[in-house]
UniProtKB/TrEMBL annotation:
The keyword DNA-binding applies. Residues 11-79 form the HTH gntR-type domain. Coiled coil: none annotated. GO terms for molecular function: DNA binding; DNA-binding transcription factor activity. It comes from the Bacteria. This is UbiC transcription regulator-associated domain protein. InterPro entries: Bact_HTH_transcr_reg, Chorismate_lyase_/UTRA_dom_sf, Tscrpt_reg_HTH_GntR, UTRA, WH-like_DNA-bd_sf, WH_DNA-bd_sf. Transmembrane segments: none annotated. Signal peptide: none annotated. GO terms for biological process: negative regulation of DNA-templated transcription. PANTHER family: MANNOSYL-D-GLYCERATE TRANSPORT/METABOLISM SYSTEM REPRESSOR MNGR-RELATED (PTHR44846), MANNOSYL-D-GLYCERATE TRANSPORT_METABOLISM SYSTEM REPRESSOR MNGR-RELATED (PTHR44846:SF1). Gene3D superfamilies: Chorismate lyase-like (3.40.1410.10), Winged helix-like DNA-binding domain superfamily/Winged helix DNA-binding domain (1.10.10.10). Pfam families: GntR, UTRA.
Length: 247
């Protein structure tokens, strides 16, 4: 991970700083009970404003990584206090990320990376019953819990009936709520979801603000409406250290 925060990135500066500090905590650079550098030191390290540093540190306090002690500094908390989500495969088809966060007591957020029309893959053609050369809508987002990235969502929709997605503001909004509003239904899983593991590389590591090599879970599924008509195909890529999977 580059030390300098990138003002041209899709991710807010505070989130880039947060990811660096969290990585230092997870890697043991700052041990449990140790203080992290002062605001002025962090300001120089990342070349960002004091306001940005304070926002990043406060998010880590809220997520249980750090604790502030007035007059003494900011210290690393024990691992048991840190943000962690449970993903149950039993309710994967009925519960949105926003709902799962609320149940766990976290504030859900999302960052839209891109939404564009692309050519359907062979898998898309088979699921959505499309002809070669037909297009689908590709939506890429990163989900956060208490401001910390925890999962990337890559979702694909047929153009027919979902053109509104291109113009929908889904920043910090539930995709399920949007589908319920526009389509009058809740997506349900069609068949089985496929769970696999991998490591973060390239753009995926950048999207999730984690170093390359970070362990990830990937969950692939196809979703339909109540009449079993295809709605969407989705990949959920979860950061292993921030998720547990219940089978």
């Amino acid at each position: 991970m580059s030390e300098q925060a990138d003002p041209t990135s899709s991710f807010p500066l505070y989130m880039q700083v947060l990811a660096h500090i969290q990585y230092d905590i997870d890697s043991g650079a700052y041990g449990i009970g140790e203080s992290i550098p002062s605001e002025s030191e962090l300001e120089k390290r990342f070349s960002v404003s004091r306001i940005t540093i304070r926002r990043a540190v406060q998010e880590l306090v809220d997520a249980g990584y750090l604790i502030k002690r007035p007059g003494k500094g900011t210290f690393v908390r024990e691992k048991s206090s840190r943000l962690h989500l449970l993903k149950s495969l039993r309710d994967v088809e009925t519960k949105s990320f926003t709902e799962a966060c609320e149940e766990a007591g976290y504030e859900a957020g999302s960052i839209e990376l891109e939404c564009k029309v692309v050519e359907a893959t062979e898998e898309d053609q088979a699921f959505f019953d499309l002809l070669p050369g037909e297009k689908i809508i590709s939506l890429k987002r990163v989900h956060t819990a208490n401001g910390i990235p925890v999962m990337a969502n890559f979702t694909r929709f047929p153009e027919d009936g979902f053109a509104y997605i291109e113009h929908e503001n889904l920043q910090n909004r539930s995709l399920y709520d949007s589908i319920r509003l526009h389509k009058g239904c809740t997506p349900k899983l069609d068949g089985e979801c496929i769970l696999s593991s991998e490591r973060a590389v390239g753009k995926l590591a950048e999207y999730l603000s984690v170093p390359e090599g970070e362990p990830l879970f990937r969950l692939n599924g196809h979703y339909v409406d109540a009449q079993n008509r295809p709605l969407m195909a989705e990949e959920q890529i979860m950061i292993g250290s921030r998720y547990s999977i219940a089978l």
